[in-house]
Design brief:
Uridine Diphospho-n-acetylenolpyruvylglucosamine Reductase, domain 2, 24% strand, 5-stranded antiparallel β-sheet, 3 domains, single chain
């Protein structure tokens, strides 16, 4: 690694003040992506700001008709939470499928969303469940948050503080995972929410996306058979050593059918 000035704020206000000083600063959440990038010298922040000591960024609480999860809450905490398991079992299941035990015990929901890796699981949960990303400055709707590969609506100085999930009528997540990394080659969250049916896909393209044709079909008939004949255009899908674009397009339909079948 290169030399750096480690910052260890104890509040969101302190972290925001450190960010405001400018320079090559980076927020450090679970560190599952940033630390690896720093070791490989792909990222060289002069001032990494560790959010791990900020207690107000952790925890899971019932919030009206939904759940609010602190940005620094670990994947393992979400997966093991009795509250999440009871109110949104699809979210607990998704969190439990992320990476391996070490990743789940270090990685955080806020870090995952801010990084917006195209093969990450949480973007599908946020978009599919119509969640709201809460920052130290504003609330950002799921449909407005994800902008592209590793790109979000976050502005300079913004810090994710929590994510609010409304409880869906039914939902499930199905993932075809890379056997080594457990990243999603294709993952699909299908949910019937208060605002309508939502189908969010991760892993297949450069950024998480919704499938309008599937949502329309499932609105009239919540059944795997309702997805018959629906396909996803191949042109914008990823093609790499793990799966061709054509295979990913096929997997989107397969995983969507499995999610619909499993949704409760």
């Amino acid at each position: 690694m290169h030399p750096f000035n480690y910052q260890n704020p104890k509040s969101v206000a302190e972290a925001a003040a450190a960010l405001a000083k400018g320079g090559d600063v980076k927020l450090l959440a679970g560190g599952q992506s940033l630390i690896a990038a720093m070791k490989l010298r792909l990222s060289a922040p002069t001032d990494p700001i560790d959010l791990g000591g900020i207690g107000e960024l952790t925890g899971i609480r019932a919030d009206g008709a939904g759940l609010t999860i602190g940005a620094m809450t670990r994947h393992a905490e979400v997966a093991g939470s009795k509250e999440v398991q009871a109110k949104i079992p699809a979210l607990a299941s998704l969190a439990g499928s992320i990476g391996d035990r070490m990743v789940r015990n270090m990685g955080t929901i806020g870090g995952s969303l801010a990084h917006n890796d195209p093969v990450a699981d949480y973007p599908a949960a946020v978009l599919g469940l119509n969640a709201t990303v809460n920052t130290n400055k504003r609330r950002i709707a799921a449909d407005d948050f994800f902008k592209g590969m590793f790109e979000t609506a976050l502005q300079p100085g913004e810090i994710i503080v929590s994510v609010s999930f409304p409880v869906p009528r039914r939902a499930a997540y199905a993932k075809f995972k890379n056997p080594a990394s457990r990243y999603a080659i294709v993952g699909v969250m299908a949910a019937a929410t208060a605002g309508g049916v939502r189908v969010a896909v991760t892993g297949a393209a450069s950024c998480v996306f919704r499938v309008a044709a599937m949502e329309k079909a499932l609105s009239g008939n919540w059944s795997p058979d309702a997805l018959a004949g629906i396909s996803v255009p191949v042109g914008e899908l990823n093609s790499d050593m793990h799966a061709s674009a054509e295979y990913r397009a096929h997997l989107v339909v397969v995983m969507a059918r499995r999610a619909v079948e499993a949704a409760k």
